[in-house]
């Protein structure tokens, strides 16, 4: 920091108007070098790795073949696994949006002290290890006579206990809990930009509360919900801890599969191919939906 | 000899010229204002003097020395910013002491000069206050003390009073002028407020779209505006299209039903520029009808529709009965009170 | 603004209960006297808290996590502060691309980062080392360090720096006496968020951690893969208690909202 910041801070104000200043590059150079050396190169190596060969006894062979990609493309096991990964992510996103958006709205209408208290309660879990939070859910469902199952059955909502461990239901429930703070935070941020007088204005024009929510509030917080959805979706699709604890070896998603290939089967090239595919798919989905949202909500985002 | 000299200074950002052909000689101890609407290039010019921007062309000299080659940290100018730009993490005294510290002034002398500077701006006893615990006016004074304590060769003021409310602003204007007179510091003030420029400056530089419109004393710029822009910008004004009529033996200046002997040196279409407070209601003159009449305490403001277009008249509230809305009136003024420009009305 | 109706408050109550329930249940189970995971129905016991002492690898993992979090966040800031200043105050070709690159670790799934780092550090002979773990964490927490520093630097009144320059400050003096103090709230918040991120990371770290450099989340994860007993709950409860104490202290002496928002009450 010292040398770079030194010269930079000195020149900053003086050369602020020079269009081709060298100062910003001098300042950013250390970080840029770090990122190229320890992020770009490793990622490139991973993509390369996915084209290498591997055998039980010969290990990794640095040749260029499409074996791994061919296997992923033809073996229905991988298609099913990716389909499961994205299905879980989509369901998780839906749940967080449906529950998180109203909660952020309710939270925003609370008075000062309650607001900060409950905001802390809802965002607090972010500070607690995912392992602990997932374990908590496993305990709550805890086989056939877990708390949640007992409660749901006594309410008559379900006839027989829900299976939690090794099920997609379990993964979605636990993931939704893990991801909820991100959704609330995102909608919360959108609500902060909302003029509180707007609702009163609508009220004075004769709109009923449900109408206000549907016509006034919803359209304005939609960008927040959508950007929250993108965050939740991409984090859920690449989640590791929760699916690993709940799904174990039986119910795999992309992240746990890559983990197994790397650290158990030791078939690194295949693991690298799975990881690369996950990365590419997510980047496409996120960039694509970002572009869609920005076009749709161009005015609101301004 | 000029103390601070700007010689055909110009500034371009890409293809856009923000300041063009700016030449000005400021005498030692003089108070000069750069006056103009936002975007006229006045702040850019100030930033070039301060050294935060480099001129694209031209030279800036201080006592004959080229200033543009000097790093802004070594120019020794005092600057008061519009936002005051106080260091929020330092007390008032630490703020004022900062410049002295940079100059390695010994501790004892530093303390004495800081104390004196704060006392001068009326903030004795506020040494240990942090800026956020001070009012806007107090912050403004700290900023002024901080700029003056280093005994700057030139004091640059960038809209220093614009964040204060009207009452405080007037008080600060008087105080600022007194301090500047006492210290004799050469001062340049950038402002968009014509009242501020007039009440503080020895000379005003009126700027528009990067160019100098007029340089003159406050009275000159007000009473003999060099252009339509100057007359419009410095207070309210009426511009009437008029002609010089030479059909008779003695040429006459004619605007609607108003006329007067034509001054020498003009012909064809001209523009009469007359301040609203210099127009009176009379028996003869420009025919007009009063559209609205607004009471403003010490004066009345009339908006009229005259033969030569809309007109504004201001009359002192001296207890006389004033014409009512809808009344037909005649507008008259003394030839000495108006200024005349060649060409049609702007 | 209108108040919440009874329906809204009911929804809110259920929501909060669901958010807290799994964490509460972990803390409760930690006090079980039984040898298996169950709610403490036969009275409270501290046996599983005492048990932590007989697993020194957990205590060690906690210190690894703490040190790794603190160090990686600090190193990230050494790189992020100058980068943030460059991005915040200069318009230059490639600025957006640079910002996107620096924020990209947020977008890249951690499992992919883990795979890439494992491959990279193994191939250069640094596999399993603490240094490798540190560098990897610097990359992962960098966006958090950058974002909050960037917000502080962008929101800063540039004329304050100009004032300092006009008074004769430049170079390192200007940075140390004026610029850094002004962006410090953002820098501190950036450090705090980066620390949390590093402390909680499991997905990326599990690829790089070796015996001796295992962080707490990694150790806990590996433990529950093989054992089902309340030890992990008592450890979680302890970490939760430490976190809450830290939060309360932070709020007391600094203000939580300032950390969360990276807000500066010094800038304008």
TrEMBL record, chain A:
Main location: membrane
Phylogenetic classification of the source organism: Bacteria, Pseudomonadati, Pseudomonadota, Alphaproteobacteria, Hyphomicrobiales
Biological process annotations from GO: transmembrane transport
GO cellular component: plasma membrane
PANTHER family assigned: ABC TRANSPORTER PERMEASE PROTEIN (PTHR42929:SF5), INNER MEMBRANE ABC TRANSPORTER PERMEASE PROTEIN YDCU-RELATED-RELATED (PTHR42929)
Membrane topology of the entry: Multi-pass membrane protein
Keyword flag Nucleus: no
Name of this protein: ABC transporter permease
Transmembrane segments: 27-51, 86-105, 117-140, 172-191, 224-246, 266-293
UniProt keyword list: Cell membrane, Membrane, Transmembrane, Transmembrane helix, Transport
ATP-binding found in the keyword field: no
Domain of life: Bacteria
Subcellular location(s) of the protein: Cell membrane
Sequence ranges assigned to domain ABC transmembrane type-1 in this UniProt record: 82-289
Family to which this protein belongs: Belongs to the binding-protein-dependent transport system permease family. CysTW subfamily.
One Pfam family hit: BPD_transp_1
From TrEMBL, chain B:
InterPro entries documented for this protein: AAA+_ATPase (IPR003593), ABC_SmlMolc_Importer (IPR050093), ABC_transporter-like_ATP-bd (IPR003439), ABC_transporter-like_CS (IPR017871), Mo/tungstate-bd_C_term_dom (IPR008995), P-loop_NTPase (IPR027417), Transp-assoc_OB_typ2 (IPR013611)
Keyword Nucleotide-binding: yes
Boundaries of every ABC transporter domain copy: 4-234
Top-level taxonomic group: Bacteria
Record GO biological process: quaternary ammonium group transport
Protein task: Involved in beta-(1-->2)glucan export. Transmembrane domains (TMD) form a pore in the inner membrane and the ATP-binding domain (NBD) is responsible for energy generation.
Cited PANTHER family: SPERMIDINE/PUTRESCINE IMPORT ATP-BINDING PROTEIN POTA (PTHR42781), SPERMIDINE_PUTRESCINE IMPORT ATP-BINDING PROTEIN POTA (PTHR42781:SF4)
Entry similarity comment: Belongs to the ABC transporter superfamily.
Protein name (Swiss-Prot/TrEMBL): ABC transporter ATP-binding protein
The species this protein was found in: Bradyrhizobium lablabi
Lineage of source species: Bacteria, Pseudomonadati, Pseudomonadota, Alphaproteobacteria, Hyphomicrobiales
TrEMBL record, chain C:
Pfam families: BPD_transp_1
Span of domain ABC transmembrane type-1: 62-250
Keyword presence, Protease: no
Domain of life: Bacteria
Residue stretches spanning the membrane: 7-31, 62-85, 97-118, 130-153, 174-196, 231-250
InterPro entries: MetI-like, MetI-like_sf
The name this protein goes by in its record: ABC transporter permease
Organism, scientific name: Bradyrhizobium lablabi
Upper lineage: Bacteria, Pseudomonadati, Pseudomonadota, Alphaproteobacteria, Hyphomicrobiales
